[in-house]
Amino acid sequence: MKKIHIALLLLAVAGIVGMSFFVKDLTTQETFSTAKEKSGKYVVVKTKLDNSVAIEYDAVKNPNLTVFYAVDAKGQRSKVVYTEAKIKDMERSEGLDLNGYMRDGYFECNKIQAKCPSKYKDDPAQAKKNLASGSANQY
């Protein structure tokens, strides 16, 4: 075999191995009920935090455990066990994308993407004013 063939073969193998790391991120969005049907498979569930139940987080006892309840798009509520520290401003977020696995009676989450609230949601007059002055595009 020529050196170029070996190099191309190694490059192809490296590409396949590299892509395998991203397979988990190529999941479809589920609800808690469909995630339950796919028990043991990595899924993403779009939810909102259930504010009627307090978030359980104790940085002294276990800084890598956060327990809370979330409601999915169909209104189904589930306990969520997040295996990391509580994310900042979780209570203020408009939505949470939970990545993980459905277990017996709860959703085991290892990654959360919080949807930030719009800074103009509460004051549409200020939003119009900022757009008119052009300051909305300044960061």
Automatic annotation (TrEMBL):
Keywords linked to the UniProt accession: Cytochrome c-type biogenesis, Heme, Iron, Membrane, Metal-binding
Any one Pfam family here would be: CcmE
Q: Which GO terms fall under biological process for this protein?
A: cytochrome complex assembly; protein-heme linkage
Region annotation (Disordered) maps to: 119-139
Localization of this protein: Membrane
Please name the GO terms that the record assigns under molecular function.
heme binding
Question: Among its keywords, does the record have Iron?
Answer: yes
- A cellular component term (GO) from this record? plasma membrane
Q: Which residues cross the membrane?
A: none
Q: What is its main location?
A: membrane
Descriptive protein name? Cytochrome c maturation protein CcmE
Which taxonomic lineage does the organism of this UniProt entry have? Bacteria, Pseudomonadati, Bacteroidota, Chitinophagia, Chitinophagales
